[in-house]
């Protein structure tokens, strides 16, 4: 069956606590890009991934091309969840009709992707996204899935695996995330999974605050490959309009992510706990 990555092959000990702080959604907006770049350059974010279909993709692609030292993945995208800010496929929507709504935008909810998306059209569109990233000078370190949509069904997960194999890139797999999207039994032999994934939640944000929640998570990290998934952006006018009526992963949330993971006290906490950074570029060495 699926197994955890053999990190001892990279020189780590079996009791080492390894952490990737990964920023999703680069390319979504100017605000998202600016905050992600600053978090990479001044904070402890050590991995990010780009949404190719979004309007600000080229800006972030240019950064990735000229800063290859940073871990950069392709955030394979099949949904457009915002109320008034929409985007659609890289391909003409006539070529992938099962992936779009009546206006030609990606479906707003994962459930609609699960209901309507045809796997062959999913693969066609996602190959186009990867190819566009490559054509713009990105040297990706991995593939991951926006809203973990590629984990919804065994068929979509098969497309995910096929893309990783065809492009010789590790894919972000998590039994935890598969369970959260309602597909817990679809892993198979040969799959490599991370040990644990940590994502903030709206209840914590509104009660103890994300700073305290992240601090608790860091203090309780276990040995192995841990991922904290964040979404860095500035709480400015642009991002407020993108996230209108969407407090979950909204503009305020994204500012909190930026603030916490660029705070020197957070870096100090990791050092005190002897938590070691790990990247997909390292993982490539034991998977390819």
Polypeptide structure, described:
- By secondary structure, this protein is α/β, with parallel strands linked by helices.
- The protein has a single domain, classed as TIM Barrel (Alpha-Beta Barrel), CATH 3.20.20.
- 40% of the residues lie in helices and 14% in strands.
- It is built from twelve helices and nine strands.
- Strands 2, 3, 4, 5, 7, 8 and 9 form a seven-stranded parallel beta sheet that branches. Strands 1-6 form a two-stranded parallel ribbon.
- Helix 1 links the parallel strand 2 and strand 3.
- The chain is globular, with a radius of gyration of 18 Å.
- The relative contact order is 0.20.
- The model has no long low-confidence stretch (mean pLDDT 97).
Categorize the overall geometry: globular
Please outline the major beta sheet.
Answer: 7 strands, parallel
Q: Which CATH class is shown?
A: Alpha Beta
Tally of distinct domains: 1
| Share of residues in strands | 5-15%
Mind telling me the CATH superfamily name?
Glycoside hydrolase/deacetylase
Write the layout of secondary structure elements.
Blueprint: E1 3-4, E2 17-26, H1 30-42, E3 47-50, H2 57-66, E4 71-76, H3 110-116, H4 119-135, E5 142-145, H5 154-167, H6 175-180, E6 192-193, E7 196-199, H7 202-206, H8 210-219, E8 224-230, H9 237-242, H10 251-261, H11 264-272, E9 276-277, H12 280-287
Parallel strand pairs: 1-6, 2-3, 2-8, 2-9, 3-4, 4-5, 7-8
Helix pairs in contact: 1-10, 4-5
GO molecular function: deacetylase activity; hydrolase activity; metal ion binding
Pfam families: YdjC (PF04794)
InterPro entries: Glyco_hydro/deAcase_b/a-brl, YdjC-like
